[in-house]
């Protein structure tokens, strides 16, 4: 079972470059999320989506954009990369069951130099 | 807004011993979910245990159990018979129940080292 798949797993960017982190899930989940994890810290919510065509800001949205054109895909766009965006990025999804469990991808380590 | 506090940045336990990780949270909600996630060096986020606030009985999953004190807003994780494979970061997390945006709020984590 694929679950939540993120690409790429590692990427180095130069300051000012742009890139898109891809996330796809095959569980037909309505809810999808992007978190970032800075060294030694917990995860902070960047953006989330409750369904195709609907997105909203989380705790730390500045410098990022998202779109949700399909149920499966939730890409995260970094515009004009800055060193402060060096982090590990996690995509997650959740279905409508009452367990509340989020299913996470394996993470994408991004370094901005 | 909800906050989750883990006051123990690092802990160490010997193999086969028991360890308890602390977590407190702040919310005005009466119904919610609480979770403990494990993050080993592989970086993968793994659900360890979950607790629904309306259930008074503490959740248990094999060697993992919680002590949920709703009035005190406390949610500690007990690991019994610790194993080397339990070495990881452990995150406490809070979620408002489904039907809302169901966003997960994390604490800053406790790094657990299991030693021989």
Descriptive report:
The complex is a heterodimer of chains A (113) and B (116). In chain A, 0% of the residues lie in helices and 50% in strands. By secondary structure, chain A is an all-beta fold. Chain A has a single domain (4-112), classed as Immunoglobulins (Immunoglobulin-like). In chain A, β9 (87-94) and β10 (103-104) form a beta hairpin. With 116 residues, chain B is an all-beta fold. Chain B has no helices and 12 strands. In chain B, strands 2, 5, 6, 10, 11 and 12 form a 6-stranded mixed β-sheet that branches. In chain B, strands 3-9-8-7 form a 4-stranded antiparallel β-sheet, with no helix packed on it. Chain B has a two-stranded antiparallel ribbon with strand order 1-4. The termini of chain B are far apart.
Please outline the helices and strands.
The complex is a heterodimer of chains A (113) and B (116).
Chain A lengths: L3 E4 L2 E4 L5 E7 L5 E7 L5 E9 L2 E4 L6 E3 L9 E3 L8 E8 L8 E2 L3 E5 L1
Parallel strand pairs in A: 2-11
Antiparallel strand pairs in A: 1-3, 3-8, 4-5, 4-9, 5-6, 7-8, 9-10, 9-11
Chain B lengths: L2 E3 L4 E5 L4 E3 L2 E3 L6 E7 L6 E7 L7 E2 L2 E6 L4 E6 L8 E8 L8 E3 L3 E6 L1
Parallel strand pairs in B: 2-12
Antiparallel strand pairs in B: 1-4, 3-9, 5-6, 5-10, 7-8, 8-9, 10-11, 10-12
């Amino acid at each position: 079972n694929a679950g939540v798949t993120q690409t790429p797993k590692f990427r180095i960017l130069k300051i000012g470059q742009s890139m898109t982190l891809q996330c796809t899930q095959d569980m037909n989940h309505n809810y999808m999320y992007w978190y970032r994890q800075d060294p030694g810290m917990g995860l902070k919510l960047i953006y989330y989506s409750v369904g195709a065509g609907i997105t909203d800001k989380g705790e730390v949205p500045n410098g990022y954009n998202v779109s949700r054109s399909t149920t499966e895909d939730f890409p995260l766009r970094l515009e004009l990369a800055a060193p402060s965006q060096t982090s590990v990025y996690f995509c997650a999804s959740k279905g409508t069951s009452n367990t509340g469990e989020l299913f996470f991808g394996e993470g994408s380590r991004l370094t901005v130099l | 807004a909800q906050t989750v506090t883990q006051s123990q940045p690092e802990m160490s336990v010997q193999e086969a011993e028991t360890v308890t990780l602390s977590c407190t949270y702040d919310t005005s909600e009466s119904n919610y979910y609480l979770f403990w996630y494990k993050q080993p060096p592989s970086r993968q986020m793994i659900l360890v245990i979950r607790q629904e606030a309306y259930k008074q009985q503490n959740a248990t999953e094999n060697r993992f159990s919680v002590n949920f004190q709703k009035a005190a807003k406390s949610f500690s994780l007990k690991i019994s018979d610790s194993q080397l494979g339990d070495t990881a970061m452990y995150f406490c997390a809070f979620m408002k129940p489904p039907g809302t945006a169901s966003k997960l709020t994390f604490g800053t984590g406790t790094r657990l080292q299991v030693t021989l």
